[in-house]
Amino acid sequence: MLKTLNQKVSIFLILFAAGYLYLSYNLKEYPYVPVDSDFVPKILGFLLIILAIFLFFDKSSETEEEKEKRQVPKKEMLVLLAVGGMIFLYIFLLEIIGFVLSSMLFIFACSWFLGYRKLVTTILVAVLFPLIMYLSFNYLLQIRLPQGLLPF
Predict the structure, then answer these.
(1) pLDDT tens digits, residue range 92-132?
(2) CA atoms of 112 and 23, how far apart (whole Å)
(3) How many whole angstroms separate alpha carbon 27 and alpha carbon 89?
(4) Alpha carbons 68 and 61: distance in angstroms, whole number
(5) Residue 48 and residue 36: Cα distance in Å, rounded?
(6) Which DSSP string corresponds to 1-61?
(7) Residue limits of the DUF1468 domain (predicted)?
(8) What is the pLDDT of residue 60?
(9) What is the mean pLDDT of the chain?
């Protein structure tokens, strides 16, 4: 039944999306907000299922050259694991120190780790992007992000 890699991956994605949708339907509903917290997760879950179905019926076959491209060198695997560790640390710190501070630390550390050495640009992006996102979500969209240690 599952002959191609695309079919195997699509089945995994459909199961993952089903679990994701189950969890998004269990999110707490908040009164008096124009866009509830489950709106975007539900859209993303259904979109993932639709795209996975398209992937399942994709007729393209994998060549030997494409199979070789899937082999990830050990050095790059360590980089992927390190960035994954930073993502988990970001998620862990998000509620504790808040969206703005954890995002600043994550953007700066990840950019620096991946080799971007323009310090002024990195600091500007690491400071301005989370601040703009936080202010946009909290005050324009009225979607509350974790405040953490900051007083606003």
Answers:
(1) 998 889 889 999 999 999 999 998 989 999 999 999 999 99
(2) 34
(3) 23
(4) 14
(5) 20
(6) ---SHHHHHHHHHHHHHHHHHHHHHTSPP-TT-SS-TTHHHHHHHHHHHHHHHHHHT----
(7) 10-146
(8) 77
(9) 88
